[in-house]
Amino acid sequence: ARIVVLVSGSGTNLQALLDAIAADPEGYGARIVAVGADRDGIAGLDRAERAGLPTFVCRVKDHATRDEWDRALADATAVYEPDLVVSAGFMKIVGKDFLARFGGRIVNTHPALLPSFPGAHGVRDALAYGVKVTGCTVHFVDDGVDTGPIIAQGVVEVRDEDDEAALHERIKEVERSLLVEVVGRLARHGYRIEGRKVMIP
Ligand code: GRF
């Protein structure tokens, strides 16, 4: 399977996928064909370039409207003919054009146990709420914010001494291995989405 990964930051989830594929290029069942971002100068793009991958950047401010940005992102992604798009720390909500082109084939990872704490501050919100366990969710993207069908979740204990950074780092350890496992399974076995259920044979 051909994968395009979208990033906005450090790209450690991207790196986990790159490392898993490098460790077993035949067996993993997928390869990353390009990495896209919504901003320049991020470590995620450096990681892609170090891996010799093509990259593209679509910045909202370079477009007259959000819809035009969304169309540009879809066009740039479509160049690589992905089977799966993996949003790994991509901090923008894709719009109707992107969903029209790739809907049902976009996987996102979120650092909380959805439907709890959706949005850009899932770790901070969980900490502020005082939950005793949180975690991460790998799900398909639909037209909502972090609302698509859930594929897998991982649980992470919250510790009294946690601040946002410490908790997020501990979540990311679980998140990286969950994403690698899920993406490989989807790529090797295919899947069906039936309502809110994801069936992987
Ligand atoms: C991940 O925890 C992701 O769920 C969240 O931001 C983080 C990105 O981390 N949206 P990285 O860029 O993959 O290191």
From TrEMBL:
Checking InterPro entries in the record gives: Formyl_transf_N, Formyl_transf_N_sf, GART, GART_AS
Give the positions the UniProt entry annotates as the active site: 110 (proton donor)
Part of which pathway?
A: Purine metabolism; IMP biosynthesis via de novo pathway; N(2)-formyl-N(1)-(5-phospho-D-ribosyl)glycinamide from N(1)-(5-phospho-D-ribosyl)glycinamide (10-formyl THF route): step 1/1
Site positions per UniProt: Raises pKa of active site His: 146
Domain (Formyl transferase N-terminal) spans 2-183
What GO MF terms are annotated?
Answer: phosphoribosylglycinamide formyltransferase activity
The record's comment on protein family reads: Belongs to the GART family.
Q: What does this protein do?
A: Catalyzes the transfer of a formyl group from 10-formyltetrahydrofolate to 5-phospho-ribosyl-glycinamide (GAR), producing 5-phospho-ribosyl-N-formylglycinamide (FGAR) and tetrahydrofolate.
Q: Output the NCBIfam families linked to this UniProt entry.
A: PurN
Name of protein: Phosphoribosylglycinamide formyltransferase
